Amino acid sequence: MTSPAARLYAALHEVACDNDAVRLRPGLAHGDYTSAATLALEDERIFQRSWVCLGHGADIPHPGDYAVEAILDHEVLIIRGDDGAVRAFHNVCRHRGHPVATGCGNARKLTCPYHAWTYASDGSLFHAPHTAEVAGLDRAALGLRPIRLETVAGALFVSLDTDGPPFEDCYPGLRAEIEAWAPSPEAMELVYESPARHDGNWKASVENFSECYHCGPVHKYLTDNIIDPSSYVVSGAGLVQRHIVGGRDPSMTQRLWHVWPNTAMGLYPLPGVGLVWCIRHMYPRTVASSTYHYRWYATGEQPADAIREYATHHAATTGAEDAAVVAGAQRGMGGDPAAANGLVCNPARGVGSEHVIAYFHDLVRVALQTP
Q: CA 102, CA 14: separation in Å to the nearest integer?
């Protein structure tokens, strides 16, 4: 019997992106962005089955460094062990279910705050108070429950499906494609992150990333100083969107990959600095809220302070502008849930095309129909 993740990816790979046709396509219904029942189904059939990126190895560079992130109600603990390996676990104590850790930090051992069960950085149970004489308590069987983890250019992808297919089978050739452009993970340093609240459904955040149709009306600083929207080329295939756009500095080209369902990564052109690696996560939180989490990285020769300064400015301009339009779309869709979005598909005019949103919508529809 195939796993739920295997069934999902087999179905998704039957979906093609139309990178040629010029037409208006109907999108998802507004109610798909405002329905708690739809989000619950997305949790079951998308997020519990898909590879989801939760950060980068550079976020936890030292033994004992850890971070906790949530895939909806599923908290994931990522920690670098004493052996240097990065592992992922359910952030759930094996005793009575309390979270073992919160936020991020460094600890060679993690102690549950409820009854002080303590776990080593490899997830094994190190100590359980007052249990030495308890019959049937096997410490070797009571470590934190592992979650599958794979890396792509240092990015940490996890899968909640214990029997699902490996990343390479789900996104054939993508790891090699991205790693051909990305800096060496060992050379990267996290220099800035900005988790921004979006008062909108996670799909609205993904869609806002997926087109530059709004760049001219919304992002004046970005289009005047960083990118040339007229050069925009976007395509979809193999569960991936590929965005290529020239920089205002003609020596630099922005290259971004959006990986199903909710992660984008790639090279961002910073004047005076060069091409900077950036990861964007579109985490669902509630039916009407998400976190658009930027992470910016420097390599050894890049000035961290300059990247930090720009990233701060970006959060206050482009990031805040995106948050405002996503919130506006969510508010509008909530007022007319029976209507559907209309998608302008004109791939040859990249800056004015929403054909990869149509592809994303097709993927969502198929995912929700796959038992």
A: 39
